[in-house]
Amino acid sequence: MNTIEKFDSRVMHTYGRLPVVLEKGNNCTAVDEDGKEYIDFGSGIGVSSLGFCNEKWVKAVCEQARTLQHTSNYYYTKVQADFADRLCSAAGYKSVFFGNSGAEANECAIKIARKYSFDKYGEGRNTIVTLVNSFHGRTIATLSATGQDSFHNYFFPFVGGFVHTPANDIAALHKLLDEDKSICAVMFEFIQGEGGVIPLDRDFVTAVDVLCRERDILTIADEVQTGMGRTGALLTSQLYGIKPDLTTLAKGIAGGVPMGACLADEKCADVLVKGTHGSTFGGNPLACAGGNAVLDTITEKGFFDEVQRKGLYITEKLLDIPEVSGIDGMGLMLGVRLRTKKAADMLTAAANKGLLILTAKEKLRFLPPLTISYDEIDKGLAILKEILSIGG
Ligand SMILES: *Cc1c(COP(=O)(O)O)cnc(C)c1O
Fold it and tell me: Which of 188, 221, 249, 378 could cysteine-pair with 227, CB 3.0–4.6 Å?
């Protein structure tokens, strides 16, 4: 049995996988079992933010593994203290809860929002508004939060207390917040990632911020995909000029070790108290060591400017390809609209030629390592251009 046969005989078939078996990698270049090289424009869905096997990151994680790999949260570790302190300071938040994934980070934010309201207003004020076409995770609660009907199947009953409103429709949101007195929070992605790389309008984001503040309704920014430098700032909220009450992070936060985080500002920093939430692996020393290495790197002077510059460079080059009709997104989170071809049909051809790339709805999606070099960008784009030119 080869690797793919063995894998498919045992691992549940929950993904449409490409027939590529990756063995090792360096920065933006991956190598498969046969020694074939690939330029990686996906970074494991925005996770390997420093690329494969970044030296500083490897050193931090390996040294931590050799020293202390896990303790449970009944004890303190310096590495978790350091990461929490540095992350909160850099992001401008008061406190953090660590979990292991984006869905868990969002579960934490949902629990904080409901308890904040319960503590202050009592029962019944527990509805969370999310946006149509959003994506918030795969647990039952975060699926319920996800504003796409295609996710609300099979697993009934879903969790109550979520309502969906169209993105960028200020009037609809205003009406909803005025009419439904059970609302305790509004949760949104600045750029809908899985929904197709669709940025929210600035006016809408400002309106969410103002309307919620007036009503003591919490704002929850799901920055699981957009956070940690992806769009050319530590948090995308900084680019939109607002400060959500809660911000959730995961994906690139620890450079490839599983970690999720829920950041809370003054208002809800102390809502969760002893016994109200937990996670066995949360804040695990290996993950925190990886997180520290990511923070060290992305907060270096000029790093975010460079992410923006690379994003603009890719955008310019892509717009020269006749098949490309437009680009959406910010920094190194880009969605590419195609004129005639189906993005999903491009994945196999790309992999055959040595390029790993993602799709989001009908678009090609770029989420390369933030450390991608211009040489790697050029190599990957040359392959993409070739594929997009086949057959006219
Ligand atoms: C990926 C993603 C999630 C889910 O993260 P997991 O780590 O897969 O649980 C949630 N929200 C957004 C915006 C995401 O992109």
Answer: 249
Encode pLDDT of 54-79 as tens digits. 999 999 999 999 999 999 999 999 99
Closest ligand 1 atom number to CA of residue 101: 7
Mutate to test the pocket of ligand 1, among 130, 135, 144, 237 (most ligand atoms within 8 A of CB): 135
Q: What is the DSSP string of 185-215?
A: EEEE-SEETTTTSEEPPHHHHHHHHHHHHHH
Neighbours of 380 (CB within 10 A): 25
Domain boundary among 280, 298, 316: 298
Domain boundary, last residue among 276, 298, 320: 298
Q: Which domain holds residue 207?
A: 68-298
For 171, other C-beta atoms within 10 Å of its C-beta total 9
Asked whether residue 63 is domain-assigned, the answer is no
What CATH number is given to the structural domain containing 281?
3.40.640.10
User: Mean pLDDT, to the nearest integer, of 118-122?
Assistant: 98
Calculate how far, in angstroms, residue 223's C-alpha sits from the geometric centre of ligand 1. Answer: 9
